[in-house]
Design goal:
Elements lengths: L2 H16 L1 E9 L5 E8 L7 H18 L7 E5 L10 H6 L4 E10 L2 E11 L4 E6 L2 E6 L3 E6 L3 H13 L1
Parallel strand pairs: 2-3
Antiparallel strand pairs: 1-2, 4-5, 4-8, 5-6, 6-7
C-alpha cells in the first residue's frame, strides 16, 4: 500500500469522529518533510484556526502511536480554501458549474490540461469539463491534479454560504 493510502486510512476515522472529512494527504519537501492534512467540516461551515489546532492535536497522537513515516517531519493541518483542490468524486459533483483547472496523467481528447466549467461526474466515473474546445469527459483515475479557479462567481457563492450559515 502506498504511503498516501496508508496515511488516509490512519487519519480518516479520527477526522470522521471529530466531524470532519479528509480532503487530501500530501507529503512535501525532502530536507524538512511536511505532512499536509487538508480537511473540511462535515456540516459545511467554514474552518477556523481552532478547528485546525484540534485536528492537529488529535492526529499527532494517532501518528505518534502508528509511526507511519520514518524520521522527523512537520505536521501541517489546513482547510481547502476557496480555490480548493478537487480530490474526490464528490468534489467534482459539489462544485459543478464552477470554473476549474484539471491535469491528467495521460492525454484525453488529445490534451493533458483542461480549464473550463465543471459538469460533474457521470455514471461511468468520468469528470465532465466544458472548455472552449467543447466537452471532455475524463476518467477520474486519470486526474492527476484539479482545483477550482478563483472567480467572482466562486467568491460570491462561497461568501453567500458563509453569510447564510
Amino acid at each position: 500500500m502506498d504511503y498516501r493510502l496508508r496515511l488516509e486510512a490512519l487519519v480518516t476515522p479520527t477526522l470522521a469522529q471529530m466531524g470532519y472529512d479528509l480532503v487530501r494527504v500530501q507529503m512535501q519537501g525532502q530536507a524538512r518533510p511536511t505532512l499536509q492534512i487538508m480537511a473540511e467540516r462535515k456540516d459545511g461551515k467554514g474552518m477556523a484556526v481552532e478547528d485546525c489546532a484540534q485536528i492537529s492535536r488529535a492526529l499527532s497522537a494517532v501518528l505518534d502511536v502508528e509511526d507511519p513515516i520514518g524520521g522527523a517531519y512537520v505536521l501541517e493541518v489546513s482547510s481547502p480554501g476557496i480555490d480548493r483542490p478537487l480530490t474526490r468524486s464528490k468534489d467534482f459533483g459539489d462544485w459543478a458549474g464552477f470554473e476549474a483547472k484539471l491535469e491528467t496523467d495521460l492525454p484525453v481528447d488529445g490534451q493533458k490540461r483542461f480549464r473550463g466549467k465543471l459538469l460533474g461526474v457521470d455514471d461511468l466515473g468520468r469528470v465532465g469539463m466544458a472548455t472552449d474546445k467543447g466537452e471532455s469527459w475524463i476518467p477520474l483515475p486519470q486526474v492527476k491534479a484539479a482545483k477550482l479557479v478563483l472567480t467572482d462567481e466562486l467568491i460570491a457563492a462561497v461568501t453567500k454560504d458563509i453569510s447564510e450559515g
